[in-house]
């Protein structure tokens, strides 16, 4: 559910920002493929004017402003934004534009060409990293004496790695968790220990809540969406590598299907589709439950969620072997092309986005549901702005007093998030689409798992 919420909210907000833009970039000159370790970090022509190309799918007004500001500070650097429109006159055109970006960027990068910098949010970053097509940004940070690791959420940087390297820099991140109806849960007297609970622990607690409390449902979701989310949360456990290829573990996936079915059988789920008539229906919006899968991607979503009067963020259930800690997703993931002739200049611009530009953001800026800045100092500044204002409101929520105690707790949750939710969007779509046949009674769990495994194996190794 959190992925769907992220997709819809970020799409709406970012498309609004992108509206009217078009792709204007020119193709980057072809260079011979080289591994990041072989390529020099310094430009061979540092004193000469440099043109950087930056390919992005979600081109916001803020990014255009950042480019203008950077160019004014560095007259010898020109940054050419290449943006495929993420909007369209209808969903079909928007989908076509998305495919255009995916195909164009993927083809260029795999051919050893492409832009100097690229937004990786919807691109196969792991595949690029495995082919040495992206710069390991850890090397850049280590060689940059001005980079202060303590100024950033290092728990995110440490856990947003691929093959022990940092190949994409997340400008923003957000929390994935369960938003709990704290007052209703406390009223039942059922103890909730979410420090390292599994989905079986969650089901056991949900049964007690239903038995002792007044609310019928434990969780608001949709079975196929919940299964997709549980798969994302367990992705590192579900994908096995053998002989250089990655394979999806269908047996473990069947276990997740049975976990969701158990919740349905026990009446623990409020099914948005079957019971509520859809996500935006009045029945769903007014549904009561003890938990709701909820992305904390802005101060607004944390302080003004509308789910319950008193809420608490709980860690997502997960296998014990993954260890304690919360879940996070990244946004604005920017990588540097390993074949760029201007890696050092590209890094300097990326560092600017992480530092100077991040600090120029206000608390109001973060209500666009893109997440919290990776820069810890920028985040602290936004918190202070909120506390000084004393109130917060949004287009859909009336003005409310800022709960400073709850706000202080948020930084702890952000700092303790260590599990990266990073399933490719094609896998999400595959699971949601194919699992509907099981939940509607048309196919067995084994048949669905076999089909899902076949499709996901192709995605993982394409």
TrEMBL record:
Q: Which SUPFAM superfamilies match?
A: Periplasmic binding protein-like II
Note the coiled coil stretches, chain numbering. none
InterPro entries to which the protein is assigned, alphabetical: Bact_solute-bd_prot1 (IPR050490), SBP (IPR006059)
A Pfam family matched in the record: SBP_bac_1
**Signal peptide start and end residues:** 1-24
Residue numbers spanned by region Disordered: 21-45
Q: Which PROSITE patterns does this entry report, sorted A to Z?
A: PROKAR_LIPOPROTEIN (PS51257)
Keywords assigned by UniProt, alphabetized: Signal
Q: From which domain of life does this come?
A: Bacteria
* PANTHER family in the cross-refs: ARABINOSE-BINDING PROTEIN-RELATED, DIACETYLCHITOBIOSE BINDING PROTEIN DASA
Protein name as it appears in the record: Extracellular solute-binding protein
Recorded source organism is Paenibacillus lycopersici
Which taxonomic lineage does the organism of this UniProt entry have? Bacteria, Bacillati, Bacillota, Bacilli, Bacillales
């Amino acid at each position: 559910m959190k992925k769907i919420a992220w997709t819809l909210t970020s799409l709406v907000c970012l498309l609004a920002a992108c509206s009217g833009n078009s792709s204007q970039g020119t193709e980057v000159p072809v260079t011979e493929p080289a591994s990041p370790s072989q390529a020099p970090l310094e430009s061979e022509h540092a004193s000469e004017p440099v043109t950087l190309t930056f390919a992005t799918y979600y081109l916001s007004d803020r990014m255009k402003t950042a480019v203008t500001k950077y160019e004014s500070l560095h007259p010898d650097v020109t940054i050419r934004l290449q943006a495929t429109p993420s909007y369209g006159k209808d969903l079909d055109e928007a989908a076509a534009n998305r495919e255009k970006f995916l195909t164009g960027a993927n083809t260029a990068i795999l051919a050893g060409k492409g832009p100097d910098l690229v937004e990786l949010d919807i691109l196969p970053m792991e595949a690029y990293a495995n082919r040495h097509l992206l710069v390991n940004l850890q090397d850049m940070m280590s060689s940059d004496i001005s980079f202060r690791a303590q100024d950033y959420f290092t728990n995110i940087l440490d856990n947003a790695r691929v093959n022990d390297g940092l190949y994409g820099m997340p400008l923003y991140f957000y929390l994935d968790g369960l938003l709990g109806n704290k007052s209703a849960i406390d009223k039942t007297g059922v103890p909730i220990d979410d420090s390292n609970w599994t989905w079986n622990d969650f089901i056991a607690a949900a049964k007690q809540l239903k038995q002792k409390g007044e609310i019928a449902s434990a969780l608001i979701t949709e079975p196929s969406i919940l299964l997709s989310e549980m798969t994302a949360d367990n992705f590192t456990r579900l994908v096995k590598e053998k002989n250089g290829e990655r394979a999806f573990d269908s047996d473990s996936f069947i276990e997740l299907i049975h976990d969701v079915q158990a919740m349905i059988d026990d009446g623990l789920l409020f099914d948005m589709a079957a019971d509520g008539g859809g996500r935006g229906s009045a029945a769903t919006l007014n549904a009561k439950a003890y938990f709701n899968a909820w992305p904390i991607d802005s101060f607004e979503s944390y302080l003004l969620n509308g789910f319950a009067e008193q809420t608490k963020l709980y860690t997502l259930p997960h296998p014990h072997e993954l260890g304690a800690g919360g879940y996070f997703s990244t946004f604005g993931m920017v990588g540097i092309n390993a074949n760029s002739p201007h890696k050092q200049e590209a890094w300097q611009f990326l560092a600017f986005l992480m530092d100077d530009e991040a600090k120029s953001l206000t608390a109001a800026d973060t209500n666009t549901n893109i997440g919290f800045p990776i820069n810890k100092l920028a985040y602290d500044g936004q918190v202070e702005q909120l506390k000084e204002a004393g109130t917060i409101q949004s287009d859909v929520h009336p003005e409310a007093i800022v709960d400073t105690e709850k706000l202080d707790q948020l930084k702890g949750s952000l700092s303790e998030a260590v599990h990266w939710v990073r399933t490719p969007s094609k896998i999400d779509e595959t699971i949601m689409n194919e699992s509907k046949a099981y939940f509607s009674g048309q196919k067995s769990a084994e048949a669905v798992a076999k089909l899902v495994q076949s499709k996901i194996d192709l995605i993982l190794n394409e």
